[in-house]
């Protein structure tokens, strides 16, 4: 077995242990030397495996202390949901009249990039969702979302007109914990200009996001195109 395949196998083993609860949020992983003994590999192989888990957002390295399963500081977020540190549209516009128009809803195979973000195979199925979200009668954001069908079960079009995160946490009983986000300014397409009511040349804020459950499984890959004059972004930094 090649070194690359070996470190990937070790990362998958630790990832599964985190998912099963063998390592709880905030707990420390075994020391590198102990992992070397456990898996009978070199330190560099273990380092590559840990680095992959860091990139996945499952663990965090603390200099001089070791590697810890990532956890969110409950004092920094809403008691209702740990997801509130980067909350969804419905939460952000709580108290406003929200309307959602479902532009597209289908079941497809993901492309290679999306499959990689969701840690699934391109042969698996995902929900492919496009929604226009409005607040107080004004269009605010177009969301392009894909979710693994095997993980987010029973999703119907009626759920898309409400909060998807409310369905995931309230109906499916899952716990949403954190996301990786990239925010950039881009020019909208002609269709997006029309749907968002943009006249003239005005960029939109594109948010690329992979969101994770508390057991570390990615459940959503999305691109959101926000009217730049309608949205502020807030973040909580977690060490």
UniProtKB/TrEMBL annotation:
SUPFAM superfamilies: Chorismate lyase-like, Winged helix' DNA-binding domain
MF GO annotations: DNA binding; DNA-binding transcription factor activity
Domain (HTH gntR-type) ranges: 4-72
GO biological process: negative regulation of DNA-templated transcription
A Pfam family this chain is assigned to: GntR
Superkingdom in the source lineage: Bacteria
UniProt key word Coiled coil: no
Keywords: DNA-binding, Repressor, Transcription, Transcription regulation
Transmembrane segments: none
Protein name, entry field: GntR family transcriptional regulator
Natural source organism: Selenomonas ruminantium
